[in-house]
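Q: I'm writing up a methods section and want to include an example of the input and output format. Could you take the sequence below and give the corresponding predicted structure tokens, formatted cleanly so I can copy it straight into the document?
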Amino acid sequence: MSDSARVVLLADDDPVMRELASAKLKEAGYSVTTAEDGAEALARLKKMDADLVISDIDMPNMNGYELTEAIRKDETLCEIPVMVITASDQSDAVDRAFASGATSFLAKPMNWSLFHHAVKFVLRASDDRRELKTAKDQAEAGARFKDSLMSVMSHELRTPLNAIIGFGQILAERFDQQQDNMHNEYAEYIIDGGRRLLNSVSDMLLASDARSGPIGINETDVFLGDIMEEALGSIEKTLRLAEVTPVQRLCSENLEICCDRGLVAKAVRKLVDNSVKFSPKGVSVVIGAALTRGGDLAIVVKDNGPGVKPELLDKVTAPFEQIDMSFQRSREGLGLGLPLVQAIAKAHGGSFRIDSVVNEGTRAIIVLPSRRVHEMPGSMPKQTKQEQGREVA
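A: Here is the clean output for your methods example:
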């Protein structure tokens, strides 16, 4: 916006000051309206569209502090920048002005050669702030729309996908009975594709929930061994194709945990799937679980794959991010695996971290707080908690 289109409201009880400042502003191309005190300035301000308020501090009826506070409390005026002018010898005058909501200040006697530049700087800063706020509002609106769209689409896709998977299973069973291997294989492709898409849809819905706050969990007491069985059971085909046989090193399969069984199993499954997906065939994958010195449960998934560069660790835990997100990438996926693991750990009051060394492998650790762990009599081996903690650390 050009300076000639700018409107400045000048409030000062000194007529000489009003005249000089007004003349300088008009000379610079601004449109100027004047007021003799804060009360008159506020009344005029409510009837006009001003781009800037310049106010003296020491005025009758309503001083500069009170005028600034009144402007900031008014929803229709609160975004207008306010410059205060002070000749006060009180050391806290500037602090009080900023505390009242002032944008900038000028000191008397005025340096008229710099006056126009100071006004121009404040107006430019106000424009930048307004543009940033608009961009922020648009970004937040876009994020809300994306989350809403993800949630709606996830719900809308689940019903037809369940039907596709269900009827695919019926067809597969029929073709298997008829020993029609070719059509049975086609049916298995349908089932596999439907399940993968359903998993992606479920992940999108969970990611949408996680953006709105901690995801809801359905707490139940479950054995550690049952969680591991559920986690690995649904990726048997993936492990078989990758020629991977995970090694489990659990402190006890009968250790009881109060958690959301499905979500914790999903988190472990995501970590194992990541180890397999981003590693060559036959990679070594170890799944460990042990109690730390503080009694927390640490679940570890470790591999000897290619590892991740330190500068990329933050990127791989961001939603919809993979190290390679091009259309030509060799690994499929939405990039939601590790962010979901992080969200699941957070929902349980726990934590998640990744340690990785290039060409040596990656270690992912989920820590569940001690209050969720119930030691069953005879469930723990003779190894001490301290020894277990050293294994995990």
